[in-house]
Amino acid sequence: MRGKARIAVSAALLLALPACSADTGQALTGVLTTPTDIDLRWRDTPPEAAGHVLEFATEEAGRYTVLQYLAPQVTAYRHPDLMPHTTFHYRLRTYTGPTVRPDQAERPDGLRLTWTDTASDEDGFLLELRRTDGDRYDPVAVLAPDTEATDFAPLPDERHAAYRVRAFVLGEPSNVVRLTTGE
Predict the structure, then answer these.
(1) What are the residues whose beta carbons fall under 8 Å from the beta carbon of 115, sequence distance 6 or more?
(2) pLDDT band at residue 24, thresholds of 50, 70 and 90?
(3) Residue 32 CA, distance from chain mean position
(4) Which of 46, 93, 106, 117 is least enclosed, having the fewest CB within 10 Å?
(5) C-alpha span between 22 and 169 (Å, rounded)
C-alpha cells in the first residue's frame, strides 16, 4: 500500500506542476515591492519589435504618460518613490520602425545630428545610442514626427558612442496592471 500511495502522490505533483507554471497570457505583471515602489515585468519582446514603451496613468480611463522607452532586451522596470495611497495603471506597447545613421557635427555644447525623414506615418523619432563598451542601443531622446535634426549634449561616457535615429510606430497596448501604493 505504501508504494502505491507514493506513486499516486508523485503523479499528482507531476500533473499539478504544469498548471502552476502555465503562461497566464498576460504580457505585463507588477508587484508592490515596498509601500511606494512598484516593480513591473514582462515577457520577451516579439522578434519584429524594436523595443517597448512603458506607460502609466493614475485614473483607469485617464491619460497615459510615458515612463520610459526601452530597448528590446529590457524586461523589467522599477517605478520608485511613488505617491502613497495612489492607484497606478500600467501598460506596455511595442514599437517598430527603421533606423538611419545621422550625420554628426561637433558643437561646443554637444552634437548636432541631422537625417532625412523618409517615413510618412511615424509616431515620432527616437535617438538611440550604443556606448563604446555597450552591446545594445538604448533610446535616449524622443523627437516629434517629421523631425530631421536635433541638438544633443552627450554625457562624458556618451561622447564617442554610436548614434542612430529610429522612425517609430507604436503597437497596441498590453493588458493593464493596476496597483495601489501604501503607507
Answers:
(1) 100, 101, 102, 103, 148, 149, 165
(2) very low
(3) 18
(4) 106
(5) 31
